[in-house]
Amino acid sequence: MKKFKILIIFLLFFNLKSFADDNQTIYDKIDVFSEVLDKINKEYVDEFNQSDAMDAAINGVLQSLDPYSSYMSPKMFESMQTETSGKFGGLGIEVGMEAGVVKVISPIDNSPAYKAGVKAGDYIVKINNIQVQGKSLTEAVDLMRGPIGSDIEITIRRIGEKKSFIFKIKREIIEIKSVKAKYVEDEIGYLRLTSFNENSSEQIKDKIKEMNKNDSLKAYILDLRNNPGGLLSQAIKITDFFLNKGEIVSTKGRKSYENRKWFAKNGDITNGKALIVLINYGSASASEIVAGALKDHKRATIIGENSYGKGSVQSIIPLKNNGAIRLTVSKYYLPSGDSISEIGVRPDIEVAENSDDFRIDTDTDNQLKFAIKLITG
């Protein structure tokens, strides 16, 4: 009876519309699922773990909705909470799923994966010679975890390349420092934002106020490349620093309370100085909100490559088993009314990376060099 109740709860996650085609009721599907589970338990060639199967089934339901919804077992949920503290062990990559394959959203600056040459948009096809296709995202992430200092080998496929790339990477403690700032040519304030965490906006504000004291300063470059996003509240605050008025972003969802709009308050803290925003395929979510809003208001010139296209909001919903689900609850819309989902933000001036040796904010960074030349003439 207990197992049957679990099955009912599980199957209620399904979208009932998907069953309309064959005129079967939800209860017919429950019977079929129960029968399949029983047959597997009795007939499958190897020993069968029903608990693992149920976890995989729940995750399958969520991942059928979109690439960002997923199930986290109690162990995975605990690991996620550790990671969001800002310091954790691993390779240093933000990943998602696409067509059953693990896709790199962006490598974290100066992480082991970044130093090895992993790029946004890469597909991870093998982990330690184990095929990734067919596994869930959580299973793939589990394979990438390991003791600090231990080695891992990942096989990458890259769009436009016929050969695969094999990277041997040593796992390290990953520390996320979200804001870096410096002067370029003494007249440009360069702000690099690598994530949107709880204090990113305060860090950006402090850096801008400090740089504003420089009488030679005439422009800012806001670098959002390889920034996979983070807190919506931080994206709104940071965008507001550069605007005097106007809509920043809106969200729309099934629930009325998910339909909201955010507007800029009066006061551009840069005093209207010229602004260039750098983006690439690793710029996602909150990064796209900032870049898209500043582009729509014609406040900034956007340079680089098309952004990732993750325009949705996920909520982490705890479960009674101490696990959780990550569920998409609404979508972002730019001031123009355009959705970011699967489209991203297109730069005003497209400048592609010019070599495989490309690294952000180094001598190989042709995108930053282009932005600097545009300002200095």
Description:
The strands form four sheets. Strands 3, 4, 5, 6, 7 and 8 form a six-stranded antiparallel β-sheet that branches. This protein has a six-stranded mixed β-sheet with strand order 10-11-12-15-16-19, with helices on both faces. Strands 1, 13, 14, 17 and 18 form a five-stranded antiparallel β-sheet that branches. It has 377 residues and is α+β, with helices and mostly antiparallel strands. Strand 17 (312-318) and strand 18 (324-333) form a beta hairpin. It has ten helices and 19 strands. The protein folds into three domains: 2-48, no CATH class; 87-175, PDZ domain (Pdz3 Domain), CATH 2.30.42; 179-376, 2-enoyl-CoA Hydratase, Chain A, domain 1 (Alpha-Beta Complex). Residues 1-21 have low confidence and may be disordered. The longest helix is centred in the first third of the chain and has 18 residues, at 26-43.
